[in-house]
Design a protein that fits this description.
The protein is mainly alpha-helical. The chain folds into two domains: 2-30 and 164-283, no CATH class; 44-150, no CATH class. Helix content is 73%, strand content 2%. The protein contains nine helices and two strands, in the order αααααβαβααα. It has helices spanning 2-31, 33-43, 47-67, 74-85, 90-106, 130-138, 164-191, 195-228, 233-283, and strands at 120-122, 148-150. Helix 2 packs across helix 5 (90-106), helix 7 (164-191) runs antiparallel to helix 8 and helix 8 runs antiparallel to helix 9.
């Protein structure tokens, strides 16, 4: 009966760990605004993202110049945008712009759509760089207060505040699942007779979760690509890099999970070996004293 209870609690703990790892990662990296901005800042150091962003900025600036009656060289504007996106100031400003996108998706404070019904995001903060504004001023182009770029083909695919519930309940879900995981792990250790073997078993379950996470990410790439197909133009290239950066970050979490699991296995083996050694010492018979002459 004790074995059945231990096995059942071990299975429940494994499931809890399998839920806790992705929930904690998503809350820390995607739902939390600061975590998402940090992710975007890291992604902004990628050359392909810088190139796509420079291209999009060049397109928007040329539209501004054309509407103002100027005939600018596309190559000149693209070069200026490329210098800006490769500068040290760009990652932080790109992260800030993605913070606005995060507000758009997780709240309804940034709800804007164009005449075609496509949801848009304002890129004007990214043109506030001094060197970039100076370049535009040399051509007589003044950066407007808003530069709205469409990020979806239609307003039906995504909408402002679509994931507001995740912002509200995400922190509670993270705390709840972590507490439950710890409780079930402690209960598993409490009902077992061999603490060392149980610790090793919990380590194995943690490693299984880490390995399953790797496999799950690879299997889910097709669905991720379906979501990326909702974006357009240079935004699609930027989204590709952002997704790759997020996956790399998730892999780091899974590697840590695997390392923790491996550490628990080693700890469990050591505890078991020391326990067996202690029992052998206790059971060793005392030598019989020789009879007195």
């Amino acid at each position: 009966m004790r074995f059945v209870a231990t096995l059942l609690l071990w299975l429940v703990t494994t499931v809890a760990v399998a839920v806790a790892v992705p929930v904690c990662w998503a809350q820390h990296t995607l739902v939390d605004r600061g975590g998402y901005v940090a992710l975007a800042t890291t992604a902004a150091k990628n050359h392909e993202l810088q190139k796509a962003t420079a291209s999009e900025l060049g397109i928007q600036v040329n539209r501004l110049a054309t509407s103002a009656g100027y005939d600018l060289s596309t190559g000149t504007v693209s070069k200026a945008a490329g210098i800006y996106t490769s500068s040290s100031a760009f990652p932080g400003q790109f992260g800030a712009a993605n913070g606005y996108a995060h507000d758009w998706l997780f709240t309804d404070t940034m709800a804007h759509s164009d005449s075609s019904g496509r949801w848009t995001i304002d890129l004007s903060p990214m043109l506030s760089d001094r060197s970039f504004k100076a370049t535009l001023a040399a051509f007589g182009v003044r950066v407007p207060s808003k530069i709205e770029v469409p990020i979806t083909d239609s307003a039906q695919s995504l909408r402002p505040g679509q994931f507001r519930a995740a912002t509200t309940w995400g922190p509670w879900a993270r705390v709840g699942i972590c507490v439950l995981t710890g409780v079930f792990a402690l209960l598993t250790l409490a009902v077992t007779r061999s603490g060392g073997k149980t610790v090793a078993a919990l380590g194995i379950s943690t490693m299984i979760v880490g390995a399953a996470g790797w496999a799950g990410i690879e299997a889910g790439r097709r669905y991720i690509n379906d979501g990326l197909n909702r974006t357009t133009g240079n935004v699609r290239q930027v989204a590709d890099v952002m997704v790759d950066t997020a996956i790399a970050n998730a892999h780091q979490w899974l590697n840590i999970t695997l390392a923790i699991g491996g550490g628990l296995v080693v700890l469990g083996v050591l505890v078991t070996l020391l326990g067996n050694l202690g029992r052998r010492v206790v059971r060793k018979p005392k030598p019989v004293a020789a009879p007195a002459a």
